[in-house]
Amino acid sequence: MNKIILFLTVLFWSFINAQDKKETTFKETPAILKINNDQIFGTLTTPDLTKKFPVALIIAVLVQRIETGTIR
């Protein structure tokens, strides 16, 4: 019985939060990061707000093994 009440509560709150009228729009701009002779292409996505907003920076690293066994 507790699981059913929990499920219905979560379903109700999900439905209420899905009806939020203050949807945030986002602005996407192309970004190129130049490092030595290489370039990293990506997209910078920011909320279309006039006030300050929190930032999260995600950096993915590609490690390639050369035939000699060293890591570049």
Can you describe what's shown?
0% of the residues are buried. Helices cover 24% and strands 28% of the residues. With 72 residues, it is an alpha+beta fold. Strands 1-2 form a two-stranded antiparallel sheet. It is elongated, with a radius of gyration of 22 Å. It contains 1 helix and 2 strands; from the N terminus they run H-E-E.
Present the secondary structure layout.
Elements (H helix, E strand, L loop, with lengths): L1 H17 L7 E10 L2 E10 L25
Antiparallel strand pairs: 1-2
**Strands ordered across the widest β-sheet:** 1-2
Order of helices and strands: HEE
Question: How many angstroms does the end-to-end distance come to?
Answer: 57 Å
Q: Uncertain spans, ≥5 residues at pLDDT below 50?
A: none
Backbone structural class: alpha+beta
Beta strands, count: 2
Report the portion of residues in β strands.
25-35%
Give the fraction of residues assigned to helices: 10-25%
Biggest sheet architecture: 2 strands, antiparallel
Mean pLDDT rating? 78
Form type: elongated
Number of helices: 1
Oligomer: single chain
Radius of gyration: 22 Å
What is this entry, summarized?
With 72 residues, this protein is an alpha+beta fold. It has one helix spanning 2-18, and strands at residues 26-35, 38-47.
Short key terms for the protein model shown above:
72 residues, elongated, 28% strand, alpha+beta
